[in-house]
C-alpha cells in the first residue's frame, strides 16, 4: 500500500500573512509526524477569509519548501471547494440537522442560557421558532445586509476527544455555526469536509484550535466520517507570554534573513526547541518523535537571540 493510501497528514495554513516561526515549527512537526508514521502529507490553503491574498500563498509555500517540507500532489485551495461545502450543507438541511439563526452578537450575549452551558455557548434562541418568527428574523437582518446564519442542531452535550499531547480533552458542543450570515462556510465545517476529502488520518495543528476539535469530531460523526488522530502543538510565545506578532521584531523567515540569519540557523533554532541537534530537514526527520513535543509553549526572544548569533 502506498503511504497516501494509508491516509495523510496535512498542513493547512491561512494565507493572510507571512508564516512566522511558530507556524513554520508547527508545519515541520506536521510533516515529520506524517512522514514518520508512513502517511502521505498534503497541503491545504485555507483561503476563505477576506484577509487572504494570493501573494501570501506564494510566500508561504516558498518558505515551507525552503525549510525542507515537501507534500504530495497539488495544493488544495478551499476557495475551489465551495460546491463541495454547499453539498454537505444541503445534506444537513435535508436531514433536518441545521436551522436558520437570526441572532446578532448582542442578542447572543444578552440571552439567558442554561445553567450548565459555558459562557459564549449559543443559547438555542432560534432553534424552535415558528414560521412567523422566522420571517420576523429575516426582516430584522435585511437592513444589515446579511442573511441568517445556519447552525447545527446538536445534542448540546459534552464530547471528549483524545490528543497525542494533551490526552483527553472535553468540550461543550453548542449549536455551532456551519454557514455564516454573509454566506461564508464556517471553519469547523470546511476543515471537517476537507480532512475527509484529503483522506486525512492525522491532524497536527497549533493548540489554539484544541477547543474546536470536539465540535469537529461531533460533525465527523454526524457525516459518517472517520475521526483522525489529533496532535495539538503548543504555540510559540514572546517573552511577555503573548502570541508572536509583528511587534516582536524579526519573526518570519524573510525578516530573519534580513537580520542575517541563514536558513540553517533558523532550522537549528526550531530543532533545538524540540531537543533535536541539526540544521536541516533530514536530521530533523531522523531525530523527531511526537514525544519530544513539550506541553509548554516555546518562548521566542528575538532580541536575545539576535545578539547571540
Ligand atoms: N488555517 C488554520 C490556521 O492557519 C489551521 C486550521 C487547521 O489546521 O485545522 O491556523
Characterization of the model:
This protein has 309 residues and is an alpha/beta fold. It folds into two domains: 153 residues, HUPs (Rossmann fold, 3-Layer(aba) Sandwich); 106 residues, Glutamyl-tRNA Synthetase, domain 3 (Alpha-Beta Complex). It is built from eleven helices and twelve strands. The strands form four sheets. The chain has a five-stranded parallel beta sheet with strand order 3-2-1-9-10. The protein has a three-stranded antiparallel beta sheet with strand order 4-5-8. Strand 6 and strand 7 form a beta hairpin. Helix 6 crosses helix 7. It is globular. Glutamic acid (GLU) binds next to strand 9. Belongs to the class-I aminoacyl-tRNA synthetase family. One of its GO terms (biological process) is tRNA modification. This is tRNA glutamyl-Q(34) synthetase GluQRS. Its EC number is 6.1.1.-. InterPro entries: aa-tRNA-synth_I_CS (IPR001412), Glu-Q_tRNA(Asp)_Synthase (IPR022380), Glu/Gln-tRNA-synth (IPR000924), Glu/Gln-tRNA-synth_Ib_cat-dom (IPR020058), GluQ/Sye (IPR049940), Rossmann-like_a/b/a_fold (IPR014729).
